[in-house]
Amino acid sequence: MPPLPSIRVSNSAILKSTSYIPTAVLVGGTSGIAQGRAEAFAHHTKGNARIFILGRNKQAAETNVQKATQELRKKHGVLVMSQGYFSVAGYTEAEGLDKKMAVHYYSRYEFIEELLPSLSRAKEGGEDAKVLATPTYNDLMLEGFAARNPTLTFGHAYPGFVRTNLGNAKDSPLWMKASVKLVVALTYPLSVSVRDCGEYLLHGVLETMKTPGAWRITNDGSDLGKKKYYGPDEDRKALWEHTVEVTKVK
Known about the structure:
Shape: globular
InterPro entries: NAD(P)-bd_dom_sf, Sec_Metab_Biosynth_Oxidored
Keywords: Oxidoreductase
Organism: Dendrothele bispora (strain CBS 962.96)
CATH topology: Rossmann fold
GO molecular function: oxidoreductase activity
Protein name: NAD(P)-binding protein
CATH superfamily: NAD(P)-binding Rossmann-like Domain
């Protein structure tokens, strides 16, 4: 793993060298991994950036993806998505979909699909245009987007063990919340803070994902390549067709 101080220096140098005001959209950025990414981005740009942070709370729960993206259509260069939560509640239906799948997968597809025009405009204007997503299912989805948008860059990150509040979903039982806190405490030396994770993933976006296509990056932002990859063409095609049908994005 590259030394964190050198990662910070590299991130700062790259963002300071841009000839435009960088713009980032961070979904799930009110906490966790995307929060760390937002903090790192804001720190290295010294506030000279446009940062859109989208989260869900009681008042915002009624707002769907299409409404949110209407305000972001002009132009933006980086889209980071890490919205998610951990629960042992099993299948929980929301608008005909399992709630966890809707948050972890389908919402990511819709955000990318809806914001493709603004990503393309940023790329045409000489800016970086990249998408970074976590966690699973996204390899095949991002490869599908990359095949259909050959000028854009898409990345799927494995963030590793990050000290977030993921186990604090309101429908999780108290024993689960207590267990998560215990595990985090016992494995503290093996994990990283939200802010440090943000630095590593920012490094992956700025340094590793330099060319268009579909990337897989590790918890330190380096190229994962095809290690532990399971994605034949027929699975990618089947998942894409299923996702288009479920989300009704034509």
